[in-house]
Fold this sequence. Notes:
This protein is α/β, with parallel strands linked by helices.
Amino acid sequence: MKDLSAVLRLGHRPERDNRMTTHIGLTARAFGLEKMYLPGMDSKVKSTLEDVTERFGGRFIVEEKGDWRDLIKRWDGSTVHLTMYGMNIDELFSEHQIEDPLIIVGSQKVPKEVFELSEFNVSVGNQPHSEVAALAVFLDRYNERDIKEKRSGKMGVLPSRKEKRVIDYSEIPSLEECFEFVREKGMDDGLMKHTLAVLERAIHLQHEHGGDLRLVISGAFLHDVGRTRTHGIDHGVEGARMVEEMGWSEELQRIVERHIGGGITKEEAKEQDLPHRSYVPETIEEKIICHADNTAGGKDRFRYQIKRTEDAGYHESAKRMKKLAEEFEEDL
Ligand code: SAM
């Protein structure tokens, strides 16, 4: 139970250690802890951590604990002091069961008592380095190298190889808002049924392949809202415009805009009289909605759609649909 684990930061000197102690808190939070104890409160450190927690979600508390000796003595779990003089971290995890640890890190010089009071004095290598590095390595091992995140704050960072993807969740409509929106726009039962099938498929794909769940859900729900105005190839562009009019996220607009077939290239867009840009899905969420839309009717229907696209002479489009499918399935 990680919520019972915490970090105890000793030797914090206001001003001088401000940044380092803040980084101890940030690292603890990022790797799943929910509390940092400080023998003397530093309001600057506390407010920075509160601000990050408020924006990026989850729970993280900075608590003043003057009597840190008592805290270590009474801790109902393992007490682990990270120090270059301790036993090797590999030995710790291979030979001992560590549960709900209080992880103690120092600053400049740690009182001798800490060595005596702690159940384990543990080194991350016997070279001097930093408390932030030591804490990160310790938590990574403790978490068995799993740093999957399940927080939901106002802001979220979407993993990306190439660019910064930061999402403001206040711009993503809830499921209820999506439902009301498509109903208000006059989505009929047939289209609603298809929308729900795409939603179900998309949630499954997100579970298997990752991506942001809230973006996937709203993207699936809204992907065909443009069809309430037109059933032409421009229904993606039209839908994106409707999403934009609501002031909803650009990420969401692009999902709606890029969901057609296996995507539409800039050149094809020109031929189809669409605004001159690329509509090929790029992000994982865009690809998921596109592929969920193609396969919501089942494999046979997908194969039929490919054939129809080929028969109509759109060989490149059919190829893109197949290529996209290969990213998600082994047997289509
Ligand atoms: N002499 C100190 C010691 O006991 O590790 C080094 C002080 S260092 C500036 C500040 C903190 O970094 C230490 O209190 C300890 O928590 C952490 N630290 C530094 N090197 C470490 C290492 N090799 N293994 C584990 N912790 C380390």
